[in-house]
Design goal:
two-stranded antiparallel ribbon; 9 strands; alpha+beta; Chalcone isomerase
Length: about 180
């Protein structure tokens, strides 16, 4: 009986380590970034036509339900769990379109060097495959990009990261229901 009790308790603790399963991807309920613990704010599936592209999740220091509240919090992480293989050009095009849709021409001109650096970094990733994880972390005033936990680049500047954040949470997000899910809705 004692053995069963410990087994059940162990399973309950293990189950508590997983916050959610979205699109077949198990997401941790917490992440650590810059020495600070972040909580899973929300997650959803990004689709194009009939294809599921990635599970997008947002981690922040404390729950937030609006873009403004997310932008007040740092560090923060956008995590993309890839559900289908994508070329670096597909990633670049999607990010570029999201930036154009949610950033004024003046703001975009001001962050052009950082956008060029983003393009070069994403190009260096090569093609991403189903099961890969891309993270975009904003910590210590820079956006740090990683693939499967390996650092791939760092892009300085809060204005750039604000523009990047608006790709998913802005007025014209990549996908409305993904925005809602990331904001915990």
């Amino acid at each position: 009986m004692r053995k069963i009790l410990f087994t059940v308790l162990g399973l309950m603790v293990a189950a508590g380590a997983q916050a959610a399963e979205v699109g077949g991807v198990k997401l941790d309920d917490k992440a650590t970034l810059g020495g600070q613990e972040l909580v899973l704010n929300g997650a959803g599936v990004r689709s194009r036509a009939v294809f599921k592209v990635y599970v997008g999740s947002l981690y922040v220091p404390a729950k937030a339900t609006t873009l403004a509240a997310v932008l007040e919090k740092a560090p923060r992480r956008f995590q993309l769990n890839i559900l289908r293989s994508l070329s670096s050009d597909q990633l670049i095009d999607a990010l570029s379109d999201g930036l154009k849709d949610n950033t004024s021409a003046e703001e975009l001109a001001a962050i052009k060097p950082q956008v060029d650096q983003l393009v070069a970094t994403m190009k260096s990733l090569g093609d991403v495959k189903e099961g890969d994880v891309v993270t975009l972390d904003f910590v210590d005033g820079a956006t740090k990009i990683a693939l499967n936990g390996a650092a791939k680049g760092s892009i300085a500047g809060d204005p750039f990261n604000r523009a990047l954040t608006r790709i998913w949470l802005g007025d014209k997000p990549a996908q409305a229901d993904l925005k809602k899910a990331m904001l915990g809705g």
